[in-house]
Write a structure and sequence with these properties.
heterodimer; A: about 110 residues; mainly beta; 7-stranded mixed β-sheet; 4-stranded antiparallel β-sheet; globular; B: about 120 residues; 12 strands; about 0% helix
Chain lengths: ~110, ~120
């Protein structure tokens, strides 16, 4: 069984640029959730994708967008990067868009200068 | 909106001793899930234990057990026989049932408790 993987592990961008982060879900999982974890804080829910459609969204602006592909892998796109977007971005996969347990990837550390 | 509060920013325990991490939450829902996740310095969030609110029995996973008090909205984690490998940030998390129409809220996390294991 393959766990959740994310790429890249680290990324440095400048303010105003755009970034794409990638996540491969655990084998057999059809739901991917994305979280932002600022330094010293708990993760905050960005959005969830279930069967290629956005299934729920947290309190994040529209410049945070995503995709889910037929193989259930997912992308998180952030446009017009701001300094406050510097954080660890975690993706988690689960089953059936419901309340099943979410299994997390190792995260992508994004630094915006 | 649901909130999760972890009132202990840091806890320290001697190896082989028992430690309890506190978590309280606020919700108006009657059916939900509660989780404890562990995040070591490697950053990967690892599930420790899960509790379903409709189950009265407290969940147990080897050395880890919870004390779930639904009326008090309290969900503490007890780690018995603490080991050096238990050192990590511990996060309590809440998730409600899926929304009508199929939407989802995602997990709501507390700010975490940094657990230090003294050899």
């Amino acid at each position: 069984e393959t766990g959740v993987t994310q790429s890249p592990t680290h990324l440095i961008k400048t303010r105003g640029q755009q970034v794409t982060l990638r996540c491969s879900s655990q084998s057999g999982h059809n739901t991917v959730s994305w979280y932002q974890q600022a330094l010293g804080q708990g993760p905050q829910f960005i959005f969830q994708y279930y069967r290629e459609e956005e299934n729920g969204r947290g309190n994040f602006p529209p410049r945070f967008s995503g995709l889910q592909f037929p193989n259930y892998s997912s992308e998180l796109n952030v446009n017009a990067l701001e300094l406050d977007d510097s954080a660890l971005y975690l993706c988690a996969s689960s089953l059936d868009g419901g309340a099943e347990t979410q299994y997390f990837g190792p995260g992508t550390r994004l630094l915006v200068l | 909106a649901q909130t999760v509060t972890q009132s202990q920013p840091e806890m320290s325990v001697q190896e082989a001793e028992t430690v309890t991490l506190s978590c309280t939450y606020d919700t108006s829902e009657s059916d939900y899930y509660l989780f404890w996740y562990k995040q070591p310095p490697s950053r990967q969030m690892i599930l420790v234990i899960r509790q379903e609110a409709y189950k009265q029995q407290n969940a147990t996973e080897n050395r880890f057990s919870v004390n779930f008090q639904k009326a008090a909205k309290s969900f503490s984690l007890k780690i018995s026989d603490s080991q050096l490998g238990d050192a990590a940030m511990y996060f309590c998390a809440y998730r409600g049932r899926p929304l009508i129409g199929g939407g989802a809220d995602g997990l709501t996390f507390g700010k975490g408790t940094h657990l230090i294991i003294q050899p």
